[in-house]
Amino acid sequence: MERKERRTGPDRGEVIAVLRRVVAENGSDFLPQYGLATLCMLAIAATTAFSAWIMRDVVDQIFVEERWDALGWICASIIAAFVIRGFATYGQAVLLALVGNNIVARYQTRIFDHLMRLDMAYFTATRSGQLAAQIAQNVTGIRDLLNMTLAAVARDAVSLVGLVVVMVWMDPLLSLIALVIGPPLVYAVNYLMRRLRTVTREAVEVNARLLGAMQESVQGIAIIKAFTMEEVLAQKIAGLIAYAENRSNKIARVSERLGPVTESLAGFAIAAVIAYAGWRAAVSAEPPGSVFAFITALLLAYDPVRKLARVQVNVERALVNARMIYEILDLEPRQEDVPGAKELVVSRGDVVFDRVRFAYDGHRPVLRDVSFEARAGKTTAIVGPSGAGKSTLFALIQRFYDLDGGRITIDGQDIALVTKRSLRGAIAYVSQHPYLFEGTIRDNIRYGRPDATDAEIEEAARLANAEEFILQQPQGYETLVGENGVSLSGGQRQRLSIARAIVRRAPILLLDEATSALDNESEAKVQEALERVMKNRTTLVIAHRLSTVVNADHIVVLEDGMLVEEGTHRTLVKKPHGVYARFYRMQSQKAEDLLEYGAGQSLADGQGLEENIEEKRG
Ligand SMILES: Nc1ncnc2c1ncn2[C@@H]1O[C@H](COP(=O)(O)OP(=O)(O)OP(=O)(O)O)[C@@H](O)[C@H]1O
């Protein structure tokens, strides 16, 4: 399905559709709570209407007829009305808050689950900080939408109807005068709502960009400081801040325009009623109770009218938020399992690329008819210059993207036809930049396989040469790592990620060798750990070290998305004009030169493989 293009403002039909959807997806689960909240709101409406109604008896019976016996029941009923109103207000507020919080939690869960299902293409095209900020801003919109709509209908609209009934009952003619303000008010509200739609969306988007940019700046703080980018970034952020402030001011100015409109219209209505009632009192001898009750009802009606007008505006804003949430929830994951997909069964672990073609954008090919076999239990090294498509091969084996042509099989099973879960369960991936999640060292290793026992985790750490440094940490395996935890060195992180791969017990290993040089001792430990994990597994390694390539069982040379050579080190170096042989000669020469000048072992070991291939091409 094509992803929807962003539009600036929803039209009315769409707005109603979103509202319907929010109600359909949530309303029925909270019927008892909403029912009770509605009862509370009806009680508020009834007691409000009653307090206007009783004014006639207060004036006529107590002040005009001086019936002191009525004083008792009138006062008692006023107290009762206000006490009921107090409890009902409390009840509805608490009920709506509880339901609202639950709705927020439900949407957060839904969004997270959905994000986890979305394909890699979505995440490469989306900025993480911005996404998080947008979700945080919008998710409360859905809660507000339901609560505000309910409050508007059950409390304010019913209160208003009750008060209008009292007004008409007490004095139909005065009611007509007062209700004249209705049409201009409705017109003003509609006008403001239209203006608000676009500006609300802009405000959410700019705030998300701003928060996202701030988060990214914090994440990249080392680079910012190293390149003294502080000022440039501060200027960029200042621009966003100014725009966000401008949008918020615009929202305030537009939505607060409602205040003067409602206040002025109400002033006219009340003044007109008082003027006419005053004139009528002067020319007729009617008891004044009804007029007092009418004026009380009119004054009391002002509050629900004001709230109803405002709720329209606020609902409009909440709808924009809700719509943005649904834009995420409606994104179709592009790589669902095919219907009836089987579990991948790995018996040996042979991985075969068969005329694989792929382009990220559907046009510019990144891999062209790539065919090779990574044999079971053996190590296949993939070499090639930067941008040749090595990482893309890895992404495709894990089915992060679907192929444009050809197929990839594991033990004869097309990976496009098996479940993604079983496919990825058969693969352990050790990345060049090991990622540590917020949590303990033990948790981080356990992400390899959630049901791994503590003993298995410790065994994996030993095999990965990680145990020694883990035990030196303040809380050993329970030491917190990740953003706010203990900082680990590059080599230590790599060994933890190797332990994670060992715990996974997967028959296929994808290894993206680190390009950044570690010190010799750390390098040796990582290397030793890798050799252990590679043993008896089908290993595909994006090789950056000459020793890895030389020792590999099979070498695949990629260039510009094409497989240009393959074989073992022995066969490939024998082809005098071959790409690999030239690269190797150059690499060895370089290593010798470097040794002559006393350069470090890791460089002599073959760092800079890609650069050499690039040189060869040049
Ligand atoms: N997510 C993506 N969307 C679009 N194009 C991409 C994406 N990832 C990589 N590419 C492009 O695909 C080509 C191959 O990239 P790939 O990362 O596979 O190369 P590589 O050989 O692994 O390079 P390196 O060694 O520098 O990591 C490059 O031209 C790159 O610009």
Walk me through the structure.
It contains 23 helices and 12 strands. The strands form 3 sheets. It has a 6-stranded mixed sheet, with helices on both faces. The protein has 2 domains: 12-329, Up-down Bundle (ABC transporter transmembrane region fold), CATH 1.20.1560.10; 351-567, 3-Layer(aba) Sandwich (Rossmann fold). Strand 4 (405-410) and strand 5 (413-414) form a beta hairpin. The chain has helices spanning 12-26, 31-64, 69-117, 120-125, 128-170, 172-179, 182-219, 221-226, 230-256, 258-283, 289-329, 390-397, 420-425, 441-446, 454-463, 467-472, 490-504, 520-534, 546-551, 569-574, 579-596, 601-604, 609-617, and strands at residues 351-358, 367-374, 379-383, 405-410, 413-414, 427-430, 439-440, 480-481, 508-512, 538-542, 554-559, 562-567. Helix 2 packs antiparallel against helix 3 (69-117) and helix 7 (182-219) runs antiparallel to helix 10. With 618 residues, it is α/β, with parallel strands linked by helices. The structure holds adenosine-5'-triphosphate.
